[in-house]
Amino acid sequence: MTAEQFIIDDRENNLFRVNREAFTSEDVLQRERKEIFGKTWLYVGHESEIPGKNDFQTRDVGGRPVIFNRDRHGDVRVLLNTCLHRGSSVCRHSSGNAKIFTCFYHGWAYRNSGELVNVPGNEDYKSEPAAVYKGLQSPAQVDSYRGLYFVNFDPDAPDLLTFLGEARYFIDLAADQSPEGVAILEGTHKYSLKANWKLLVENSIDGYHAKSVHHTYFEMMMELGATPPMLGKDTVNGVAPAGMGTEFPNGHATLMYPANGLPLATDSVKQTLAGLRSQAEQAFGENYANAMFGLARNSVFFPSLILIDLSFGLTLRTFYPVSASETLVTGWQIIPKGVDEEFVKYRINNALTFWGPAGLATPDDVEALEQAQKGFGARGEVGWSDVSKGMGKPVPAANDELQMRSWWREWNRRITGEQLPTEGTSFVPFDKQGVDA
Ligand code: FES
Ligand SMILES: [Fe+2]
Fold first, then answer.
1. According to the UniProt entry, where is the signal peptide (predicted)?
2. Of 123, 236, 284, 413, whose CB is crowded by the most CB atoms within 10 A?
């Protein structure tokens, strides 16, 4: 073992360990900023958040301030939100509608397609700024998949579709839930935690902690007559009640298990869901509709885009490090388009009950992760975390840790250049040929 070793991937003894320095070191964070946030595809936003011409949202993506907007022709843009003059943001609002972005500092003004169109005191420049600087910059690559927009700051990175590979099928399972498509519900859940961002990656695809950290939620579900996750009887599309973890190239991974709880759903909500399901069956076949509505799925798209479909709610979440021990998180709810108000209300209530600021899940998760970060204070004495659960099983269950190991191997490859073999368990829970045809 060298000081540079972050992962122990011991196949003989089925032990997988992560060096706790990876969660605490500012040097590691600098390398992550360069090798991960500077070179992989990062999520910016969903097309439904900027439905009309000149609509915009401002975001922080991988440490860069950006404007995600539509220009006056309706084309989607991503502009770096920094004035070419002396750096100030050219847009200080979180969302809105604007044809021109005027910098607050000295008044340079830019069209929403980026061009610099007005410079106060322009006559004082021998070389006109508009001719020298042209306009606001964009990330090296901008691309979208099923309405989800991503950027990549590396001009040489492989394209988005190649990067997503088969993991994209889990985006399809969310995007195909209504013939009219899906949309982000207005409103965001923003929070921060005093813990390393990779702890939240692990937590977002961790089926193991559900029973301990979220027992109050499951007790509530049982009182309401719903079956808690991973305790059902039915196998869905080859996924047993205990569920399974699966890995894909480039660090994407998913855990899934048969969905069996719709707490507090009224008849009308159940009818809406049944309607969506039968439309999906007609459009794509029963096998695909089963995967879509019959399996709960937690997916990570490397490095930090999370998509969680628990039937009672569909959440999208991304997060970026502020420092080695602080993370900023933004979460949204996705809703199938065309559903009635009662269904929307049901989804909002569930999202708040489970993931909300005073919900039964997220605050407890944050507490667990902040406790872990505190524990890393003793990393001089206890230097390694264990991520071995289910290693060596032919089919790791949803509450095993295959999906985390898969993510960590990609993290390790990008940070150290060392390529560790996968565990060879890629699984898509439907007949792809039927859907791709
Ligand atoms: S920094 Fe924007 S106009 Fe000066
Ligand atoms: Fe949790």
1. none
2. 236
What is the tens place of the pLDDT at every residue in 156-177? 999 999 999 999 999 999 999 9
Tell me which amino acid residue 86 is. Answer: R
Residues 74, 199: one domain?
no
Taking the centre of ligand 1 as the mean of its atom positions, its distance from the CA of residue 320, in whole angstroms, is: 27
Phi, psi of 117 (to 5 degrees): -115, -15
- The residue contributing the CA closest to ligand 1 atom 4 is 106
Cβ neighbours of residue 383 closer than 8 Å, sequence gap 6 or more? 19, 20, 21
pLDDT-flagged residues of the chain (< 70): 1-3, 437
Do 330 and 405 share a structural domain? yes
**Cβ 348 vs Cβ 263: under 8 Å:** no
Query: In this structure, which amino acid lies at residue 269?
Result: V
When divided into structural domains, the chain yields a total of 2
pLDDT digits (tens, 9 = 90+) for 26-51: 999 999 999 999 999 999 999 999 99
Pocket of ligand 1 (CB under 6 A): 83, 85-88, 103, 105-108
The ligand minimizing its distance to the Cα of 218 is 2
Structure confidence by residue, pLDDT tens digits, 320-373: 999 999 999 999 999 999 999 999 999 999 899 888 888 888 999 999 999 999
Ligand 2 is an ion; its neighbours by CB within 5 Å are 365
CATH of the domain at 125: 2.102.10.10
In CATH, what number is assigned to the domain containing residue 432? 3.90.380.10
Query: What residue ranges in 290-414 does DSSP mark as E strands?
Result: 295-301, 305-309, 314-323, 326-336, 384-386
Q: Domain range for residue 215?
A: 167-436
Find the ligand nearest to 362 CA.
2
